[in-house]
Design brief:
Helices cover 35% and strands 27% of the residues. It contains three helices and four strands, in the order βαββααβ. It has a four-stranded antiparallel sheet with strand order 2-3-1-4. The radius of gyration is 13 Å and the shape is globular. It starts with a strand and ends with a strand.
């Protein structure tokens, strides 16, 4: 069953250099052994209820286990500190239908 890793950027980027490092490292993770499909990469956000996040990324994985394995992989964990320094984020995994 498909799963979605959704990352919400809660604030504007405060450190562009750190964000660039993060993006460079995560781009290198595309393809290869990871079966992920980008579904949303900072598209326009239309708030309906509550405050809109500053940005949203949504990646589709075949399963929750695949999404968690990608997030917990050594390569992503090496990139993650750069994202955390760049801005404030929330991240979740949601099981699809």
């Amino acid at each position: 069953m498909a799963a979605y890793l959704i990352v919400y950027r809660e604030s504007p980027v405060r450190d562009p250099a750190e964000m660039e490092r993060y993006q460079a490292q995560t781009r290198q993770m595309s393809g290869g052994d990871w079966k992920l499909t980008p579904r949303v990469i900072y598209g326009a956000v239309t708030p309906l209820e509550g405050q809109a996040p500053d940005g949203v990324i949504m990646l589709e994985f075949p399963t929750v286990e695949d999404a968690r394995a990608w997030y917990e992989s050594p390569a992503y964990q090496a990139a993650l500190p750069h994202r955390k320094k760049a801005a404030d984020f929330r991240a979740i995994i949601v099981q699809g239908m």
